[in-house]
Amino acid sequence: MSQATVPAREGLKFFGRVSASVSHEIKNVFAVINEAAGLIEDFTLMAERGMPLKPERLKSAANAIQGQIRRGDTIVKNMNAFAHSTDEDVREVNLAELLGLTVALANRLADMKQIRLTAGDCEPVSLAADSFDLMLLLHSSIAAALDALSAGDTLAVGVKPENGGASFSLSSPGKDAPLANDEAFAQFARSMGADVGVDEDNRASVLRIQPTARPE
Predict the structure, then answer these.
(1) Cα 146 → chain centroid
(2) What's the Cα-to-Cα distance from 178 to each of 22, 27, 46, rounded to whole Å?
(3) Three-state DSSP class for 116?
(4) Lower Cβ count inside 10 Å, N or C end of the chain?
(5) Nearest to 131 by CA among 179, 198, 73, 84
(6) 179/144 Cα distance (integer angstroms)
(7) End-to-end Cα distance, the chain
(8) What's the predicted TM-score (pTM) here?
(9) Model pLDDT for residues 153-180, shown as the tens digit of each residue
(10) What does the record give as the reaction this protein catalyses (predicted)?
(11) Alpha carbon of 187 to those of 88, 111, 183, 195: distances in Å?
């Protein structure tokens, strides 16, 4: 996988898409917190007027706020890890971790299409790569696969070592492989030094990558 083949504009657009998606998620978190805080305020006013206050309603509102704070913390941590993917051109990358982060960042896209997106079988594998470019490739493959599926489907993405490199699999139970060799995405993948194939036995699309040469 060659970092030099990724146009700077494509990278900027990818960073923008992910940033916009994350900002929408954070905005949703704030909206739920604001709603729960409004409920607590209403309960307080009711109590001031002498109306009985049920502790469980307060507890439910507080739990909602705490849950959204945990959700927001996870979203911000993922965005922080994504931003740091640009720190080095090439480094040793834990592909299972990178896949998990990419799936987390693509979950909103899947939710909008009412498709369940999961990290499938992930074997330990790491290799030298530009983590930002690799996330661009993976995120783009997930987006293309989601376009090929329907509401109610599940998309599972896994990774394993293969021939000195690694292969990512994208599959949907009961469905044919969501990406084929002759699709537009395959051309995009090849432009990044990756290869798209189909595992007929497992009815999965396969994205194969090789280590990136480290800069001298």
Answers:
(1) 12
(2) 26, 32, 54
(3) strand
(4) C
(5) 84
(6) 7
(7) 17
(8) 0.89
(9) 999 999 999 999 999 999 999 999 999 8
(10) ATP + protein L-histidine = ADP + protein N-phospho-L-histidine
(11) 26, 27, 7, 9
